[in-house]
Amino acid sequence: MPRAGVGARQPHRLECPARCWPRSPLLPHPLPDPAPAMPSLGVQPLCTEQYGSRGARCYLPSPDGRLSCVGDEPGRVGWRSLKEIFMSVFLPQGYPESVSQDYLPYQIWDTVQAFASSITGALATQAVLKGVGVGDQTSTVAAATVTWILKDGTGMLGRILFAWMKGSKLDCDAKQWRLFADALNDLAIFMEILAPAFPACFTLIICTSGFFKCIVGVAGGATRAALTMHQARRDNMADVSAKDGSQETLVNLAGLLVSLLLIPLVTDRLQLTYILYGLFTALHLYANYRAVRAVCMETLNRARLRLALRHFLCQGWVPTPAHANPQEPLLPEFQRHLRLTLGAPLHLLVSSVAEFQQACEGNSRNYLIALNRKAGTVAVALRHGASGVDTIQACSHALLLETLLCQALPPGAVEEETLQKLQWQLCGAPDGEVWAALMETHQLLDRLFPQFLAGLVSAGWVTDRNLLGAEEWRLDWTPKDKKTL
């Protein structure tokens, strides 16, 4: 056999550092240490490989024809292994490429709020148990059981009613509903903490709190699902949701450990209980606000479309999702807005044949629109088969009317003279001339919408689907240029 060159390693098996590859349960022993880097000896690597965004490793030829794997230095393998074990347990596979860019800041603040909520929840649990008679020899098991059944039953009714009334709206405004759910949860916890101080109304207070908490469960769970859909970028919703559950479980476990230390301190000390509740509730609300503010969604809801259209009319270009999302309102606004019904039935648009003909006149689009200035409403009927772009155009038309009726136009707006003329017509024209003004807004939108849509696409907004909250009513009508037989 030919003798190996000076400085060459003895032949060895294929070697991989434990850092670069998860240890298989089929291997009884860890793999041997990796071979030292050979490129310094002039050996060209045959190939390199990488697991997601983790460190790369290369394969070099050994003198005996086998492959040798070269990775990081041995001293870094242990630390990297611990880090990768933690990531594999609590983060989705393929992180960070498999999730959205806002995943990490959202999860950090979500972790903080979950910890604070766990502490306040423990304080509330202690108060409820005290209120139902735990530790009181005069209380009966039957009375405590009845109170608990009433509390759970009231909550079940609340869950059904809230899902029926608001279930279809939770996707459209996931951020706002998420913040609402956590604020309502804090209110429910506060009621439970106060309940023992009012024995005569204890059952009523507890049932009301249970009602609120079940609303929180519906709103929080639904909005969490919407946010998970946004975060999952590789059709990995199940993995993202499962790892979020693992993170929440770990945080709740930490909260339980802290609660074990706090409960003996606050027992029979109401003032300290109220102080701790106030501190952790403030932390909970702040962390929730920062969490939902960190979310950057690329799908258009009405608030984000309103911001994008307003910016386009004022500046002539469409803001990116990263620019518009921080401006999205998370709390109720006191600005005047038209009440918009998207996907409305025909009776909300017109009440006579003449009005229907006026709505259809010169309209070759896949929607009809009607404005009621006295009621402050705008109704939009969508045609059967209307696409996502058609829905965005219809909603943009309604928001354009809102801008003309409710807001002042800034100097230098796109087609400023036309907008000012239409604003005067819509605000000051008699009721009989409103339809003529609407027809002119159709013509204006025909000129502006192609530019606006191209700006949305180039800015990174999703246009093939949306969260504009359209109702299910759809119409079919014959355009005026088509004659019926």
The quaternary organization reads as single chain
Quickly count the helices: 13
How many strands in all?
9
Hey, roughly how much beta strand do the residues contain?
Answer: 5-15%
Shape by Cα distribution = flat
Percent helix: 40-55%
Mean pLDDT: 85
Radius of gyration: 31 Å
The secondary structure category is alpha/beta
Order of helices and strands: EEEHHHHHHHEHHEHEEHHHEE
Distance between the termini: 96 Å
Low-pLDDT ranges: 1-41, 480-485
Which sheet architecture does the biggest sheet show?
A: 4 strands, mixed
Which properties best describe this structure?
13 helices, three-stranded antiparallel β-sheet, disordered N terminus, alpha/beta, 54% helix, 8% strand
Short précis:
The chain has helices at residues 74-90, 103-132, 141-166, 174-194, 202-231, 237-266, 270-294, 302-315, 321-324, 353-360, 388-406, 416-428, 434-459; strands at 47-49, 57-61, 67-70, 299-301, 339-342, 367-372, 377-383, 462-467, 474-475.
Could you please describe the fold and organization of this structure?
With 485 residues, the protein is α/β, with parallel strands linked by helices. 54% of the residues lie in helices and 8% in strands. The strands form 3 sheets. Strands 5, 6, 7 and 9 form a 4-stranded mixed beta sheet that branches. Helix 2 (103-132) runs antiparallel to helix 7, helix 8 (302-315) packs across helix 11 and helix 11 (388-406) crosses helix 13.
